[in-house]
Write a structure and sequence with these properties.
Length: 124
């Protein structure tokens, strides 16, 4: 499993698009729930957590897929990060703190399994 961003660096008004790539490196097909009930995206800068996909998630769904042996699949529709800080207490606020230019880190997990590779990107 890999964390994926659509770019390495984003200008001031560009919103990062976040997704997951999953590979079945086994010899047998596997079933996996890849729906939003099991996904977690997290963006940090240093030890500071800026955003979690689960903080303000209103509707989640299951999506069980079969991944053939040797097959790699990616998110059908990437998530877009608004470049603002999230927490369960600020979901309905329109004036959440905006992320400053700098280096950020995306990590992803599905069903508690952390991606083997994480992704660094820059905000300008």
């Amino acid at each position: 499993m890999l964390a994926v961003t659509d770019k390495d660096s984003y200008g001031g008004d560009e919103l990062p698009k976040l997704s997951i790539t999953i590979s079945n490196e086994g010899d047998e097909p596997c079933l996996m729930n890849v729906g939003t009930t099991t996904q977690k995206f997290e963006i940090t800068s240093g030890s500071d957590v800026w955003w979690r996909s689960t903080d303000c998630q209103t509707e989640s769904s299951d999506q069980v897929v079969q991944i053939a042996a040797g097959q790699t699949v990616s998110s059908a529709t990437p998530l877009e990060w608004s470049r603002t800080r999230s927490s369960v207490d600020t979901c309905d606020k329109k004036d959440r703190p905006r992320a400053l230019p700098g280096s950020y880190h995306l990590s992803v997990s599905i069903g508690g399994i952390e991606a083997a590779d994480t992704r660094y990107f820059q905000l300008r």
